[in-house]
Specification:
Blueprint (H helix, E strand, L loop, with lengths): L31 H4 L1 H4 L7 E10 L7 E9 L3 E8 L10 E8 L6 E4 L3 E6 L2 H12 L6 E2 L5 H7 L9 E7 L1 H20 L5 E13 L5 E16 L6 E17 L4 H13 L2 E2 L1 H11 L2 H6 L2 H11 L20 H10 L2 E5 L5 E5 L4 E4 L5 E4 L6 H4 L5 E2 L1 E2 L1
Parallel strand pairs: 6-7
Antiparallel strand pairs: 1-2, 1-16, 2-12, 3-4, 4-5, 5-11, 6-11, 8-9, 9-10, 10-11, 13-14, 13-18, 15-16, 15-17
Helix pairs in contact: 5-10, 6-10, 7-9
Length: about 400
């Protein structure tokens, strides 16, 4: 199965003064009153809170399951999630992650797009035959030229963006290097399996957009091409067969004067994305037997989920969201393409990347974060809640 990447899939904060504390972190001599409690600090002005939002699979396994999560500023509203397209002719698109998150003032939107897969052939007669099959019962993935990431955005993605035009586009060079490393591993694995005629060609781009109403946007897109050289039995010689897939497309739209803020939110959302490995494993089991998927009802798919993970309390600590080991390296590289993130560690040693430019950070086990520039600000006193101070790496 192709790994679903989200984009997904942000935190912002600053602050001002706190009580003296003992070594174990307790307030000294009733100093809490000097900090003024919650009235002294105003959320949204003195500090901002980042909370985890959940991308849910409502129907794939018989009951709602978390597919992934990422950080957004408190108050952002997430809609959409995982859609199962039973009977879809392109298997790679049969599980679609499609969602949208909107800021409280409605001025900014972060939007994740589902995987797109398509195919092509060097021989135009073969392409025509493929297109004829698409009109009949032998449907499959779309038939389109083997676009790289920027060409795919220009030729296909813009049609989905309601009149947007491209202001500028640039290769995401650091990400491409990471994708090329993965392509080299894919090549080595293919050769070990005796497949010596396959080549992997990754590409990624960052695009600046503008709409007629004056709003602007930043779009990130990746495309993986697999080229297989095969004998051409119609005309002789060798021809290339292309399998292409855009696994990652993420858009943030914003007022023209808020680009830096919007991209900071986008970068944090990407860097903090966590895919639920139990959900991913269950989906992989479904993908491993296409025939079984076609004849299996939702109740049987629910058994795959039960085998993959036993549900426990919703308040339990979600280790799959915290550990460095669970981080998708591609997400990390996308975050660096956007920039504007710093890496922090909590007392347990777990790491997370949050919006850059802050000197203090605090975390809670439920996946909520606070950032501040005031070394005296202490949310344990101000908010009267259980927070842990984090260390910047």
């Amino acid at each position: 199965m192709r790994t679903l990447t989200f984009a997904g899939i942000a935190v912002i904060l600053s602050c001002t003064s706190a009580p003296s504390r003992t070594e174990n972190g307790e307030a000294v001599d009733g100093k809490d009153s000097e900090q003024g409690g919650s009235d002294h600090y105003k959320e949204g002005t003195d500090y901002h809170i980042l909370q985890r939002v959940r991308v849910m699979d409502q129907s794939g396994f018989g009951r709602p399951a978390e597919a992934a999560s990422f950080l957004l500023p408190k108050g952002w509203r997430l809609t959409g999630g995982i859609q199962w397209r039973v009977g879809h002719p392109c298997m790679n698109e049969s599980v679609a992650a499609q969602w949208s998150a909107t800021s409280p003032d409605g001025a900014m939107e972060l939007r994740g797009f589902p995987v797109r897969s398509w195919q092509w052939h060097d021989d135009q007669q073969v392409v025509q035959d493929m297109m004829r099959n698409q009109q009949g019962i032998m449907k499959s993935c779309d038939i389109m030229p083997p676009y790289d990431a920027e060409a795919f955005v220009r030729e296909q993605v813009l049609q989905e963006l309601g009149g947007a035009s491209i202001v500028s586009a640039e290769p995401a060079a650091a990400l491409v290097r990471t994708m090329e490393e993965q392509a080299q591993r894919n090549n080595a694995a293919a050769q070990q399996a005796g497949i010596t005629n396959a080549t992997f060609r990754p590409s990624a781009t960052k695009v600046h957009l503008r709409w007629p109403d004056g709003t602007e946007g930043t779009l990130l897109c990746s495309v993986d091409q697999t080229v297989i050289m095969m004998p051409n039995y119609l005309h002789g010689g060798m021809s290339g067969v292309y399998q292409c897939q855009s696994n990652f497309r993420l858009l943030v739209r914003y007022p023209a004067d808020r680009q830096e803020e919007a991209e900071r939110i986008m970068g944090t959302a990407i860097a903090s994305t966590r895919i639920n490995p139990a959900w991913q494993q269950a989906v992989a089991q479904v993908f491993s037997n296409v025939a079984a998927v076609e004849r299996t009802e939702a109740a049987k798919r629910a058994g795959l989920w039960r085998d993959a993970q036993n549900y426990s309390s919703d308040l339990q600590r979600r280790t799959w969201e915290e550990g460095q080991a669970s981080r998708d390296r591609i997400n990390t590289e996308w975050g660096q393409v956007i920039r504007g993130v710093d890496e922090w560690k909590d007392p347990s040693g777990s790491s997370i990347e949050l919006s850059a430019g802050y000197t203090e950070a605090w975390s809670r086990p439920d996946g909520t974060y606070i950032l501040s520039n005031d070394p005296n600000f202490d949310p344990r006193v101000v908010l009267q809640e259980d927070w842990q101070r984090m260390q910047k790496r």
